[in-house]
UniProtKB/TrEMBL annotation:
Protein name: DNA topoisomerase
Organism: Enterococcus faecium
Keywords, comma-separated and alphabetical: Isomerase
Signal peptide limits: none
Taxonomy, superkingdom: Bacteria
Family matches, as Pfam families: Toprim_Crpt
Gene3D superfamilies: Topoisomerase I, domain 2 (1.10.460.10)
GO molecular function terms listed in the Swiss-Prot or TrEMBL record: isomerase activity
Length: 187
């Protein structure tokens, strides 16, 4: 996750022409080729990088002080608040006491005493934060989820939270009748 300080640092360093130029990258690549051809040394390359970093450490703090980050800070704060809001999925349906937070691969109750977890990928389909929120708050997705994959191929179903707090599928009657019955040929 990108931090506010990281964004501000990137903006300050952006003003350093040596760091952002393709020429500097080309010079480094060229010298690395020389090292590969035994025409240059690793020690020289690292010494030059050390000089470059020392130069940055002298110049960048001044650039940070002279840069107006007002609008950037507001944008970063708004983005952080939006991201934080999408992490909160609702009250835990199992313990009904704590919040369920969205992490990279799982939504989990914040209570140490509660073991509620909802995987973000179900039937090889990555669910959206909105779909996960619907399951937690309403016990089901509001619409059928397409692109779910099972042993017999792709399918569409409403994802439901069962009584044991695991997920299951609910298939609409309309979809069931649309599938053609497969017959096996025997010879």
């Amino acid at each position: 996750m990108v931090t506010n300080k990281g964004i501000l640092l990137c903006q300050a360093v952006e003003k350093e022409p040596l760091l952002t130029s393709a020429e500097m990258t080309a010079k480094w690549e060229s010298y690395l080729l020389k090292i590969g051809e035994q025409k240059g040394t690793q020690a020289t390359f690292l010494a030059n990088i050390q000089k470059f970093v020392s130069h940055l450490l002298e110049v960048v703090p001044g650039q940070i002080q002279s840069t107006d980050f007002g609008s950037t800070l507001q944008e970063v704060k708004a983005a952080s608040e939006k991201q934080e809001a999408t992490r909160h999925l609702g009250v835990c349906p199992k313990c009904r006491e704590q919040e369920v937070l969205l992490y990279q691969n799982v939504a989990a109750c914040t209570s140490e005493a509660c073991d509620f977890k909802l995987w973000t990928t179900i039937a090889k389909k990555k669910l959206t934060a909105t779909q996960l929120k619907e399951i937690i708050q309403n016990g089901r997705t509001s619409q059928s989820v397409r692109g779910l994959k099972g042993q017999k191929g792709s399918f569409e179903a409403t994802i439901v939270l069962k009584e044991d707090f695991t997920t299951g599928f609910e298939f609409s009657e309309k979809k069931k009748t649309n599938y053609k019955k497969r017959t096996r040929r025997t010879t």
